[in-house]
């Protein structure tokens, strides 16, 4: 039986994760330049001007991600997050930006930036890792209940790229850029923004590059200042956030769908719990693992099919279906109509 899109028991615990308001530095002005007005957007999600006035004020993470999506709709600019991120310099990022800028070398900057970013923005996975001849600076939200997250991803990778450019110059470009969401209608602008090939429908969001001079000194490197800022960020951010098991499983399933149907063993290993423990704890939420996979696929399917510019084949591939026909059968089981008919009536 298909899993309902309504969450079952205990799926929305009281704890809410935060992002420090430095992540919205310059939002009001950039929105104005894009033809929008901040007041109705901030009011709709419960933010006030004072929430954006202090770079260390905690903003609700879900509301912040929603704010970026609303801004794109409000300005009729589907690439709002992409453009906002390209002009977002490290000094605008508050403590985490200061940590990167005061690191002794670029390698130190990226390592510390990735290690401590989840204190700046909770419920987030970041990593700076070696992948063969390439380096990867990765970013993703681990809360699988946050479905509509494209603007945040494009904004954040722009921020990340500007950390490297702060050291190596504005002409630096990655070899590749990866996004977990499917290709948008204005996808060509992404390649121009990053001066690199951009691939959509990937497992995670990432800047992929090689031949970066990691030993290059940061222009304002100051080890003592970096250490002080690191301690301050950890003290203010407190921890990396808390996400309920169901949301974590949903997030891990979403990351793995482009590679095909996720296996419970792989998800359990990624989350660091035994398979049987994972299944038992999912049962406490009212789900089996297969129902959770079905829930993630169904929710993402509705999200993408409503976007008329996204080819249905791209949707099928993003959800781990090897054939469009298999996706269409699943979609009809979920919604009672074909994806094409659903799109026409949406």
* Arithmetic mean pLDDT: 92
Strand content: 5-15%
pLDDT < 50 stretches: 1-14
| End-to-end CA span | 25 Å
Major sheet: arrangement of strands: 3-4-7-5-6
Q: What's the count of strands?
A: 7
The secondary-structure element order is EHHEHHHHEEHEHEEHHHHHHHH
Reported for the largest beta sheet, the result is: 5 strands, mixed
Shape: globular
Radius of gyration: 20 Å
Count of helices?
A: 16
Q: What number of structural domains do the residues give?
A: 2
Percent helix: 40-55%
- Give the helix/strand class: alpha+beta
Structure, explained:
By secondary structure, the chain is of the alpha+beta class. It folds into 2 domains: 78-237, no CATH class; 245-345, Arc Repressor Mutant, subunit A (Orthogonal Bundle). Helices cover 50% and strands 9% of the residues. It has 16 helices and 7 strands. The strands form 2 sheets. Strands 3-4-7-5-6 form a 5-stranded mixed beta sheet. Strands 1-2 form a two-stranded antiparallel sheet. The longest helix is centred in the middle third of the chain and has 19 residues, at 150-168. It starts with 17 loop residues before the first strand and ends with a helix. The model is unreliable at 1-14 (pLDDT under 50).
Concise structural overview:
50% of the residues lie in helices and 9% in strands. The protein is built from 16 helices and 7 strands.
Features:
single chain, 346 residues, alpha+beta, Arc Repressor Mutant, subunit A, 2 domains, five-stranded mixed sheet, two-stranded antiparallel sheet
